[in-house]
Amino acid sequence: MGSTCGRLSERRTLKKPLEVYDWEGRFLVGHAEVEVRKEGRVAAYEVRLRDGVVIEYPIEQLREVKGRLMLMPTWYVVAEQLISRLQREPSKEAINEARRVAAVLNDILTALEGERERQRELVLAKIADYSLGDISEDDYQSFVARLQEERRRVNERMQIIRDLIDRLNMQLVAAKLGEKFEE
User: Are the beta carbons of 46 and 36 closer than 8 angstroms?
Assistant: First the structure.
């Protein structure tokens, strides 16, 4: 059992460290070795990164998936917190911040759409190479399999971002409607 830091915070070393991956599950970031509890709830994990550095990540930045933790990007966490804030107490400040975050999410979505276009161009080039005999069928099939996995990940990211944008927009509409009823 870990030591108690202050009256409300307790650190406990995990019996078995949890693997922590990037939000796509592609890269091992490190291992969560210590659980930080506040008021009886998990508030954070101390994660030892692959280079040995230890960083404490708040629970809002981590998602448990299939027995391992995924480190979520900051824009995801900010969007989730804004959605929650708008549901509880819509304010002009929160509405303006939500609009800015939605614009950032739209920029990320546009970049991912550009990535999909780049993938399409790569496929066309490989089809030409294969058709002209410049690469073997095995090389072509291997390329297609890698690109299909990459496309699946891009599509998943795009769906997550679209869902966040939709949820933010729904909260913005609800906040706007609430303003009209208060007038």
Answer: yes
| Structure token digits, residue 65 | 């998936």
Are the C-beta atoms of residues 75 and 87 closer than 8 Å to each other?
no
Helical (H) or strand (E) element with 158: helix 137-182
Angle subtended by helix axes 74-88 and 137-182, to nearest 10: 20
Tens place of pLDDT for every residue, the chain, 183 residues? 444 444 567 999 999 999 999 987 779 999 999 999 999 899 999 999 999 999 999 999 998 888 889 999 999 999 999 999 999 988 889 999 999 999 999 999 999 999 999 999 999 999 999 999 999 999 999 999 999 999 998 999 999 999 999 999 999 998 888 765 454
Inter-residue contact 3 to 132 (CB < 8 Å): no
Looking at the DSSP assignment, which residues form a beta bridge with residue 126?
Answer: none
DSSP state letter for 3: -
